[in-house]
Design goal:
Length: 314
């Protein structure tokens, strides 16, 4: 009797339906695949940068334990590159274990300024902007440097050097009135202390150094922050607190309650973001005394005391 042979099972490739030679892959599928490839490439790039950033920060931990002063400035000088990195020195680095040190020092690594402004416009549900403003922002800071404008970055973008979660669509700068004509931005005075300009589609709010407090901040409360490799002259934490507190009395008197609430939140976040650093509120109020009335200083003191005493769900 002749033995029957088993029927061969076709492979999956053979079972798969064949595309007609003239049939084309939809362009939407091609676009989706390219977008996924771009996302994967970006993820791999960020992973590499995170690895480098963690290694550099660990070196700084060792240096700190050996007594090197002011590790925050060391991070700024050594240019730790992390696009979205926020690491804790003395605590869990790269998720390698629980906190073992007595203190935690947080370092903020800041996005590019052009990305900050572009994202704020792109995700504004009221009036999203589809124009790419990033080249304009880059060109603005290039031209500020080329024309020798002595500026200090303040406002929402500067705030992001110290806290998270603040969104802003414009650039805020302290400048001298003498420098307003150095750039082609059509700067126009709003009053004695403020001007407004538009540089290639980007709104720029200008705080003029004719105001004594603005001039003081520009002289004594400035530092350099690397926004993804670009060094930008930026107000210090104390400088931003001085500006926010200084603005509050006027905002309340003009019933601009939404902005007043936002500024009070900024003050609270700047205090909480200090993470071990000391913010001397009494010294801040003393610096504001020549610029505000005694009543305003007392009201601001009350706001600061209320924020310090605030406890929720205890």
């Amino acid at each position: 009797m002749e033995e029957s042979k088993p029927t061969p099972v076709p492979s999956r490739a053979a079972q798969a339906p064949k595309l007609d030679e003239e049939q084309e892959v939809p362009s939407s599928a091609v676009s989706t695949r390219r977008a996924l490839d771009d996302d994967l490439s970006l993820a791999r790039s960020l992973d590499g940068k995170l690895t480098v950033a963690h290694a550099q920060l660990e070196e700084l931990v060792v240096a700190q334990r050996r007594g090197r002063p002011d590790p925050h400035r060391e991070v700024m000088r050594e240019g730790v590159d992390g696009d979205d990195v926020a690491c804790a020195i003395g605590c869990s680095l790269a998720r390698r274990g629980p906190c073992r040190g007595p203190s935690v020092i947080f370092y903020r690594v800041v996005l590019r300024i052009d990305e900050i402004v572009q994202n704020a416009h792109a995700f504004d549900p009221r009036a999203p902007v589809t124009t790419d403003l990033r080249p304009s922002v880059e060109a603005l800071f290039d031209e500020l440097e080329a024309k020798g404008v002595d500026y200090v970055l303040v406002g929402g973008v500067a705030l992001l050097a110290y806290v998270e979660g603040r969104n802003t669509q414009d650039i805020d700068l302290i400048v001298s009135p003498d420098d307003l004509g150095k750039l082609p931005w059509g700067a126009t005075a709003q009053d004695a202390d403020f001007a407004r300009a538009t540089y290639r589609g980007v709104r720029v709010d200008l705080l003029l150094r004719t105001n004594a407090l603005f001039d003081e901040v520009a002289k004594t409360a400035r530092t350099t922050v690397p926004f993804q490799g670009r060094p930008v002259v930026t107000a210090t934490r104390e400088g931003l607190l001085l500006l926010k507190l200084y603005a509050l009395p006027s905002l309340y008197r003009t019933a601009n309650l939404a902005r007043a609430a936002l500024y009070e939140t900024d003050v609270l976040m700047l205090h909480q973001g200090a993470q071990g650093a000391t913010v001397d509120d009494a010294a801040l109020l003393e610096r504001l005394r020549p610029h505000l009335s005694g009543h305003d200083i007392a009201e601001l003191r009350g706001i600061l005391e209320e924020q310090r005493a605030r406890r929720r769900f205890t």
